[in-house]
Task: structure prediction
Amino acid sequence: MLGDVLACARDCGSVPVFSAASQLRALAWWRRGALSEVEADARQALQGVGYHATPHGALALVEALLARGDVAAAAQTWRDAGLDAEREYGFSAIMRLHTRARLMRARGRAQAALDDLLECGRLQDEWDVRTPGVANWRVDAVAILAPLGRASEARTLATEELAAASAFGSARTLGAALRAAGAIEPGERGLALLRDAVAVLEPSPARLEHALALLELGAAPRRAWLRSDARGPLRDAIALAAQCGAHAPAARARGARRRRRASPARPGREPQQPDGERAAVARLAADGMTNRAIAQALFVTEKTVENHLGSAYRKLDIGSRSQLARALPALPAAA
Result:
């Protein structure tokens, strides 16, 4: 439908309509996980009349860049689009807060991200927004609360999101809700929820969300030391994320698969990590991510990140984090 609008706008020479339709289509591409198409439509809108009439194109572009693992470019896009102006109301304001929370989390600012997500909930209550189709903010809040030891709050939000998503009926939102609930439930109950998430998303067009569900399912058995169960989901997560152009989840899945292969016989020992993970840590650090954010993205400890960075500094003959971006092109292509 938006393609028809764009064709009509070209015929009529309407730049504002062309920009608005491009931004809305970028948002639709984002929800399908088609990141190249997101960037094409969003940047096309920016070249027209910019993002001033609606923030949808800028928000979709920030989301796409985060999924690609380019946190610095996502932050720059946010600034260039003036998205901190808080000029939107209703759905747009909730969507803006949700995307900013993801940006804050990627930059290692978990508390700021959580504050934005909870504000999404407050605004939804104030404006009587009940659909998770606008912003499934609880999914991201659960992922932040659980590692902080706030399991009870995380489970409450996961239950609420699952109920809302079930009533709404969208495969994308239901799959995300199942993924969030499964990630914090231990044992077979959690695995069952994650399998349901994969089953719901598999026939849907939401490819990136499907990849995230596969990643979580593949990581879950690894945590339970059932390593053979992780092979299929992690392999499929890597392939699907790569098809989307989502380098960040693909890197997480590769890291999980490498650790599964290198896992020691006894739980509790940190396995020796390959050079590929060190290169991934260095690249994410050069992109502006904090040690904590890198650890969360690659499922390693902050101490491991520190060790990898120290090793990278020695290998590249540099002395600080600020020199990484200039030094990294000297790495072998395989790394």
